[in-house]
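ARCHIVE CARD
CATEGORY: sequence design from structure
SOURCE FIELD: tokenized fold
FIELD CONTENT:
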């Protein structure tokens, strides 16, 4: 049947349906009016008074909220006096079967033939692609609000539906935030896999295990049952909204409605679903919402839309507000509004020329491309939030993240293409405040993290354990609000990957098999473990260090003062002293200026000897001042010890030798003094190793790690050459250097000749309690301890937040001090204060100096005794040869000399001299004696023994017979002179 046009005076609720009635006179009249008005408006650059638009919907959308929203949008624009004041929109709606693309194309050509300037819809993705091909061929703007699976840009299309690539990115961000690592994707429609293909092949989620299943209402339950059997607790649901109630029923039937499961829906209309059966079972249901229903302006528009009737009345309609607040009606409304804004912008630039277009002629509309460009440049805000396009695709929008709670769905965050996901309520994703949840916590006995409580009598359950991790677990459970049961891991290992079997062991294996919910202990976070299980934020930072037995203190010896120089240096100094002494003596012997030779008296020729002028002869210097070998050694030794020797070089050559020796001794003594202070004030220890490099460079000291621990994994997988060398040593060492527990490793260290590579926190605990243990070097790496959970556990983020809060409050540091430093069995070390710069020197440090002093005194006494004995024996032999009287015995001579030395009898003259002087020959009278003559001036008739006697007679008057060069005495007066007839001289 033909549809007749109905046009009232205000053109308010015009429904121009006369395109199916070609012979309608009203149609001809309006077309004639359009042409006249178009000609009249062209000079003033305005739009035509009536702008025809077409809409194509599926038959199931007839009398739906989508059609209602489209009609309401046209009516609202026509009533707006500012948007298009001189033009009105006239629409035509055609309905087609859902899967009938042929009839959809025919309807579109029909609308084009009757002069529409734009086509809206359909919202079905498959039908929309066919309609777009027609619009693209004829350059007619195609305004869409549908899911577009084509990634390429469309020239004549403007799509209000968010780009699917951006939606997939939003799903990825939420899955990353929820830490989903094992996900099941359930899709219903055939194009569902293409819809989520970017999500499946996303490069940033290589660690996610995805399970794809296509389902329909008849297979919902089977698919869910399969997912449950595989222990998959995270599901991404992409089903038709009209079948959602059947899917939810399957969840209830399989009892998959507890806190372990988390469902993420791709639908924007989760608020329209009946979730009453899921609110009180703590099921995690999350979805995005494109309509901000909390906005007052948006709610007013929907309320007005619910009251709207196409005939102009305002009586309540059968469209409830809940049915209207859906994504599809809102997007259709926004598409009409965006088209109107584009027309308004076009009106300010140039006129819109109307032309007769037909699908049969395939002649494009010249003004269509310009109109699409203006619509594509629109930036506004609609019911679906901010709107902005790029190449026909919507790039600016905002999605509200909804989460099901006990009372209703609440907004817990937002997502935008620019800012990503922004969670405003972190506690909403697993609210266990009113839940009675008991978690299984596995651990390992390790001091001081987890230990048996003493005494263990009459203790059951969690009361059997104590330690740092037990206290930490209790604080976390109070904050996160869950109960727990502590169990020990069966094999007593933390977990390491075995390359031969390809399996994990220890705690990691238990968590992978979902036999426990948490793992608490000194469990290190590393890459290998993180790839198969999850870790919370680290509650303690640490590194690998070396535990070693305290090195033995260097024993103090009497001759510690000899240590500043090595043996080689002392030997070289001794050799230098001898060489320089000999060199100085030889240079002094050769140099003519060091010791001038004596000269004889000068005699004038032809003059009697008695009348010759006398000139004193040049004599040798005293023996004590000559550079003999003994004097050179004494001089060199005195200079070395910074003392004077009484010997002074005179010649230039000998002074050069002395100056060089002075410089040499300056450096030697300064170096010795500086190094002596360090050796006597700084306590030195015998430390065979200083760091990891030193440990790897030797083979005498064995070293190892904990078996099947992260430290062993670190050395096994390290690429650093030093650590690779250490691993080869540990791997090939027999017997094995790996220990099953930390206690065994500490015991081997105390036994000696073993270094234990362990984590710094455990090392610190052991050092604090045993003064025989110490840490060697610094940390070899940096890592942390964390609480382990199965992959994708919902408890991870809650516990991480609790750990961060405890760290900020200092609670973890308090627990650390409690179990590490404030315990009763803490070792007390007597360490030197940092303020003291030097320690006092004891007898054990410098006692050797006193020993040297005593030894020197003893040697001096022995030498004096030897000299005393030798002198007495020499005197006794001399008297036996020269004197006729019986000689005294050696003992009597030594006794007399000793009494003279000690002056026991007050004598001032040696006994031997006294005996000799009593036999001297008088010169003339009994009171006048002939003085002793100088050497070489004795009368020739005197025998040698007489000369000695004359010389010795003056011993008691100040003359020392040991001097070889005595000063010449003054000549006697003339009355006492003796004529030396034999020599003929005075």
């Amino acid at each position: 049947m033909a549809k007749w046009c109905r046009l009232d005076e205000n053109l308010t609720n015009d429904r121009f349906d006369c395109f199916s009635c070609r012979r309608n006179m009203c149609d001809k009249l309006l077309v004639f009016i359009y042409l006249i008005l178009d000609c009249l408006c062209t000079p003033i650059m305005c739009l035509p008074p009536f702008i025809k638009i077409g809409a194509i919907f599926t038959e199931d959308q007839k009398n739906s909220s989508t059609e209602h929203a489209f009609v309401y949008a046209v009516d609202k624009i026509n009533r707006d006096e500012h948007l298009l004041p001189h033009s009105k929109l006239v629409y035509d709606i055609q309905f087609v079967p859902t899967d009938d693309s042929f009839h959809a194309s025919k309807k579109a050509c029909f609308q084009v033939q009757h002069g529409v300037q734009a086509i809206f819809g359909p919202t079905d993705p498959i039908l929309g692609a066919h309609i777009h091909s027609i619009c693209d061929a004829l350059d007619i703007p195609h305004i869409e609000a549908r899911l577009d699976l084509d990634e390429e840009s469309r020239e004549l299309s403007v799509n209000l539906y968010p780009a699917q690539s951006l939606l997939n990115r939003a799903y990825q961000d939420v899955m990353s935030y929820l830490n989903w690592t094992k996900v099941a994707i359930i899709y219903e429609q055939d194009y569902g896999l293409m819809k989520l293909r970017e999500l499946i092949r996303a490069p940033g989620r290589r660690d996610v295990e995805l399970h794809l299943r296509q389902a329909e209402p008849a297979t919902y339950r089977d698919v869910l049952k399969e997912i449950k059997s595989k222990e998959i607790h995270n599901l991404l649901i992409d089903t038709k909204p009209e079948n959602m109630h059947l899917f939810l029923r399957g969840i209830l039937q399989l009892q998959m409605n507890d806190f372990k499961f988390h469902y993420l829906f791709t639908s924007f209309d989760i608020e329209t679903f009946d979730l009453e059966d899921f609110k009180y079972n703590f099921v995690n249901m999350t979805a995005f919402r494109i309509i901000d229903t909390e906005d007052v302006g948006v709610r007013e528009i929907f309320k007005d839309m619910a009251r709207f009737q196409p005939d102009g009345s305002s009586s309540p309609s059968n469209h409830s507000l809940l049915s209207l607040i859906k994504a599809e009606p809102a997007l259709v409304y926004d598409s009409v509004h965006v088209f109107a804004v584009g027309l308004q912008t076009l009106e300010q630039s140039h006129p819109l020329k109307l032309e007769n277009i037909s699908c049969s002629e395939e002649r494009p509309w010249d003004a269509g491309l310009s109109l699409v460009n203006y619509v594509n440049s629109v930036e506004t805000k609609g019911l679906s939030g901010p709107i902005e396009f790029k190449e026909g695709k919507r790039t600016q929008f905002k999605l509200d993240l909804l989460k099901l709670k006990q009372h209703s769905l609440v907004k817990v965050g937002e997502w935008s293409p620019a800012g990503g996901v922004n969670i405003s309520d972190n506690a909403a994703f697993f609210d266990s405040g009113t839940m009675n949840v008991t978690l299984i916590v596995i651990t390992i006995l390790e001091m001081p993290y987890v230990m048996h409580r003493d005494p263990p009598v009459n203790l059951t359950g969690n009361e059997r354990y104590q330690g740092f991790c037990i206290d930490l677990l209790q604080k976390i459970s109070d904050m996160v609000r869950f109960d727990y049961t502590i169990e020990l891991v069966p094999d007593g290992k933390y977990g390491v990957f075995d390359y031969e079997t390809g399996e994990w062991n220890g705690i990691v294996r238990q968590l992978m098999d979902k036999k426990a919910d948490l793992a608490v202990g000194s469990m290190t976070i590393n890459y290998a473990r993180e790839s198969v299980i999850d870790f919370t934020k680290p509650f303690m930072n640490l590194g690998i260090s070396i535990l070693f037995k305290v090195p033995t203190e260097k024993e103090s010896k009497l001759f510690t003062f000899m240590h500043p120089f090595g043996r080689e240096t002392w030997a070289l100094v001794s050799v230098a002293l001898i060489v320089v002494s000999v060199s100085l003596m030889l240079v002094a012997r050769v140099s003519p200026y060091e010791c001038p030779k004596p000269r004889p008296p000068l005699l004038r020729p032809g003059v009697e000897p008695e009348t010759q002028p006398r000139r004193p002869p040049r004599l040798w210097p005293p023996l004590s001042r000559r550079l003999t070998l003994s004097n050179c050694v004494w001089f060199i030794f005195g200079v070395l010890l910074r003392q004077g020797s009484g010997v002074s070089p005179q010649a230039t050559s000998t002074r050069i030798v002395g100056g060089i020796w002075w410089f040499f001794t300056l450096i030697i003594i300064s170096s010795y003094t500086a190094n002596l202070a360090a050796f006597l004030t700084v306590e030195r220890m015998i430390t065979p190793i200083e760091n990891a490099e030193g440990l790897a460079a030797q083979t005498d000291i064995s070293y190892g790690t904990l078996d099947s621990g992260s430290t062993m994994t670190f050395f096994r997988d390290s690429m650093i050459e030093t650590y690779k060398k250490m691993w080869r040593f540990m791997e090939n060492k027999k017997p094995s250097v790996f220990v099953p527990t930390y206690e065994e490793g500490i015991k081997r260290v105390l036994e000696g000749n073993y270094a234990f590579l362990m984590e710094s926190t455990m090392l610190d605990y052991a050092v604090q309690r045993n003064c025989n243990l110490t840490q060697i070097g610094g940390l070899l790496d940096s890592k942390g301890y964390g609480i382990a959970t199965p992959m994708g556990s919902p408890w991870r983020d809650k516990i991480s937040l609790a750990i961060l809060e405890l760290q900020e409050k200092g609670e973890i540091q308090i627990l650390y001090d409690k179990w590490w430093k404030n315990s009763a069995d803490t070792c007390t070390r007597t360490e030197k204060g940092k303020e003291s710069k030097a320690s006092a020197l004891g007898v054990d440090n410098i006692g050797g100096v006193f020993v040297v002093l005593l030894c020197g005194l003893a040697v001096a006494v022995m030498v004096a005794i030897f000299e005393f004995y030798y002198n007495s024996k020499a005197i006794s032999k001399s008297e036996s040869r020269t004197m006729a009287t019986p000689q005294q015995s050696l003992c009597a001579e030594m006794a007399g000399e000793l009494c003279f030395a000690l002056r026991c009898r007050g004598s001032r003259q040696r006994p031997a001299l006294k005996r000799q002087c009593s036999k001297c020959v008088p010169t003339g009278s009994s009171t006048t004696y002939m003085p002793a003559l100088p050497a070489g001036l004795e009368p020739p008739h005197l025998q040698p023994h007489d000369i000695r006697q004359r010389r010795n007679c003056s011993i008691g008057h100040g003359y020392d017979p040991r001097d070889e060069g005595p000063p010449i005495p003054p000549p006697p007066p003339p009355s006492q002179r003796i004529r030396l007839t034999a020599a003929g001289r005075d």
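CARD ANNOTATION: The CA atoms of residues 61 and 67 lie 7 Å apart. The two ends are 183 Å apart (CA to CA).
SHELF: design records, drawer C
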